[in-house]
């Protein structure tokens, strides 16, 4: 299956890591989240990717008292070392990613240049579109195609800028673990790859809204013909639902998290009537509280949809929503989003077409959705553009 266009690795611009020219046959993906580390290894045989191994290890317990960045970093290092030691993983080449408010993705129209010319002038061309001092970021780009604007020939380009500090933090963690970071990607583009592995070419030719609901950040993207056309990171995420319960019920994080996962959101009138008939006042109360961050998340999705529709020259409509990430496991969230945006919602299983039946039947397929970023990262290799 042909993968979507990739961005030139931001990592290649960093001086601290010297990369040899030989491309490895295999590498391993490490998705370092706010509270856990997900590791995935794939193998490419012919043109088919196969899942070799996957692990998830919690790092920071959200119920813990405030810890320093140094302490949090050490927990991440310990978690990675633990997995590599216990599983006897000998691979050293690893891929990771970044997201959040230190990463900016812009779709811009630039004067028509060839890739070599743009590479030489990218900092000058990108500066008007980047809200950070240009010296503080690494910039990458992907040319999407030629367009005409005001009678002038231009090229539509994806610009990605990531603060050097956030990239270096990820790299330093991996180096401390004795690993060799060879590519640093962006979460949303990694999910785009995971989606391409698990859909047919016909399906890829459609338009999707993709919502990756993590613990503290939600990546929202709109994928058209296998390429992201809108990418946004917002901060209404899984922890927003937990904090809403904490505030309203005056309970600790652990209790709020347990209640959130036990009850979820009641969406349909039938669900609410059933809870009422059973005298389940707690389910009704919790659903009401959880509805507030759910509305905020849908509002962010609608902003992305509106922006896409105003920017799209073809006036294409979104066909479907893919929901992934640990936050997607909140009961009723998929049904609520579907009802609000009037589109079918599917929880993405990134293992659907790459894992054998033994893995797929080992647990609830919904639990695999947290690996979407790591699966997408695992398709990358040193030297990718």
List keywords for this structure.
385 residues, globular, alpha/beta, 12 helices, 13 strands, disordered N terminus
Entry summary:
The protein has 385 residues and is an alpha/beta fold. The chain has 12 helices and 13 strands. Strand 2 (36-45) and strand 3 (48-58) form a beta hairpin.
What would your notes on this structure say?
The protein is of the alpha/beta class. The chain has twelve helices and 13 strands. The strands form three sheets. It has a five-stranded mixed beta sheet with strand order 3-2-1-4-8, sandwiched between helices. Residues 1-24 have low confidence and may be disordered.
The best one-word shape is globular
Largest beta sheet: strand ordering: 3-2-1-4-8
Task: Give the number of helices.
Answer: 12
Mean pLDDT: 88
How many beta-strand runs?
13
Q: What is the CA-CA span between the terminal residues?
A: 17 Å
Strand content: 25-35%
**What is the multimeric organization of the chains shown?**
single chain
